[in-house]
């Protein structure tokens, strides 16, 4: 991919070339994503910017996204920056090369005003408070962007844009010979009709919950916190989509980085967003259902790339846990359906 471009920084044209600037590698991902800091020279321009270069590798991994995900990230940055409800980094420039499956994103460098928590970071009370406020901003933004189309499933093949739990179960059921799902299929097979009927019921009830923007890739390294801890900014909006308040509550405040505060924050969050349960299930049941659907979705995504993971030994450790716990999750849900 070419690095040079004539870019308009605050109405100041800057023609820059990779040979004329200092590049520092910040991240090299196994999914075709590279992040650099570029130090620039010139008047009335940022001293440095962040360059995010992404491509789809020939040997694609499960974590490789697609051009639809890149478009979604750019679209979200543009919409969010115009409405000024959710604090985000400034988007200066982007390129999406559909032919060669590459993208280039240039965004604001927050290094002088924010810090990135380490992967094993435990948030203190002040940090928890600003992250909590950021998620409330995301909920508020949902009301203004309710017609924004972000349908492409996160981490899914682009042709699968509207997938239901029933589709997932039927897809997994067809993978009898895929070693990682043998245990799951063994449970599903004798109960397939019953499970599909129950999931149909669950799905219709679940759809009654009000849709909100759902950020699906929360972890300490994906959020920047201001030095005086009065603001937090999320990154990587390839992982944005439509879900409900339960998704945000579990994706964010279910993270181990919140330690002993998790349950308290979860309940406070649902109260703060005035979560309305319009289904016939109580909150405890809804949370159990949400975990089951999330797990089934991840199985379906991984199964979409089954050829890359022929045996259990090649799977990520977290997915092995998902597979092992799924039969138990299915049983828990069937108890109250």
Tell me the number of helical segments per DSSP (H or I, 4 or more residues long). Answer: 8
The tally of structural domains comes to 2
* Main β sheet profile: 5 strands, antiparallel
* Order of the strands making up the biggest sheet: 3-4-5-7-6
- Rg of Cα set: 21 Å
Uncertain ranges = 1-6, 152-162
Strand residue content: 15-25%
Average predicted local confidence, pLDDT: 78
Please report the first level of CATH classification, the CATH class of the largest domain.
Answer: Alpha Beta
Q: Topology as H/E string? A: EEEEEHEEEHHHEEEEHHHH
- Could you say which overall geometry the principal axes of the C-alpha atoms support? globular
The CATH topology of the largest domain corresponds to: Aminoglycoside 3'-phosphotransferase, Chain: A, domain 2
Bin the helical content.
25-40%
Tell me the layout of helices and strands.
Elements: E1 5-9, E2 12-16, E3 22-28, E4 33-39, E5 48-55, H1 67-83, E6 91-97, E7 102-108, E8 114-115, H2 125-144, H3 165-173, H4 182-206, E9 212-215, E10 223-226, E11 232-234, E12 240-243, H5 245-253, H6 262-272, H7 283-304, H8 317-334
Antiparallel strand pairs: 1-2, 3-4, 4-5, 5-7, 6-7, 8-10, 9-12, 10-11
What does this structure look like?
This protein is α+β, with helices and mostly antiparallel strands and 337 residues long. The chain has two domains: 3-109, Phosphorylase Kinase, domain 1 (2-Layer Sandwich), CATH 3.30.200.20; 125-335, Aminoglycoside 3'-phosphotransferase, Chain: A, domain 2 (Alpha-Beta Complex), CATH 3.90.1200. 39% of the residues lie in helices and 19% in strands. The chain has eight helices and twelve strands. The chain has helices at 67-83, 125-144, 165-173, 182-206, 245-253, 262-272, 283-304, 317-334, and strands spanning 5-9, 12-16, 22-28, 33-39, 48-55, 91-97, 102-108, 114-115, 212-215, 223-226, 232-234, 240-243. The strands form four sheets. Strands 3-4-5-7-6 form a five-stranded antiparallel sheet, with helices on one face. A three-stranded antiparallel sheet has the order 8-10-11. Strands 1-2 form a two-stranded antiparallel ribbon. Helix 4 (182-206) crosses helix 8 (317-334) and helix 5 runs antiparallel to helix 6. The model is unreliable at 1-6 and 152-162 (pLDDT under 50).
């Amino acid at each position: 991919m070419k690095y040079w471009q004539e870019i308009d920084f605050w109405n100041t044209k800057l023609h820059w070339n990779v040979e004329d600037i200092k590049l520092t590698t910040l991240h090299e991902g196994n999914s075709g994503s590279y992040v650099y800091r570029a130090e620039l020279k010139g008047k009335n321009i940022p001293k440095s910017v962040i360059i995010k270069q992404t491509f789809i590798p020939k040997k694609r991994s499960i974590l490789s996204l697609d051009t639809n995900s890149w478009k979604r990230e750019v679209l979200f940055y543009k919409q969010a920056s115009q409405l000024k409800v959710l604090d985000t980094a400034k988007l200066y420039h982007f390129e999406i090369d559909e032919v060669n499956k590459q993208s280039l994103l240039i965004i604001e460098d927050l290094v002088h005003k924010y810090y990135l928590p380490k992967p094993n970071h435990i948030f203190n009370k002040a940090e928890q408070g600003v992250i909590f406020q950021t998620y409330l901003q995301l909920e508020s933004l949902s009301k203004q962007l309710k017609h924004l189309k972000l349908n492409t499933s996160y981490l899914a093949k682009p042709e699968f844009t509207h997938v239901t739990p029933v589709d997932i179960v039927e897809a997994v059921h067809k993978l009898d010979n895929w070693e990682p799902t043998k245990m799951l299929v063994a449970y599903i097979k004798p109960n397939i009709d019953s499970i599909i009927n129950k999931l149909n019921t669950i799905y219709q009830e679940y759809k009654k919950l009000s849709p909100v923007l759902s950020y699906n890739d929360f972890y300490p390294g994906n959020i920047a916190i201001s030095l005086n801890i009065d603001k937090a900014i999320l990154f990587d909006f390839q992982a944005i989509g439509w879900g409900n308040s339960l998704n945000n509550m579990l994706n964010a405040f279910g993270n181990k980085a919140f330690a002993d505060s998790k349950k308290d924050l979860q309940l406070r969050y649902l109260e703060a967003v005035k979560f309305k349960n319009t289904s016939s299930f109580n909150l405890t049941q809804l949370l159990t259902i949400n975990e089951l659907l999330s797990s089934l979705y991840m199985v379906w995504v991984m199964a979409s790339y089954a050829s890359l993971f022929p045996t259990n030994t090649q799977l990520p450790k977290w997915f092995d846990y998902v597979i092992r716990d799924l039969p138990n999750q299915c049983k828990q849900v069937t108890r109250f359906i």
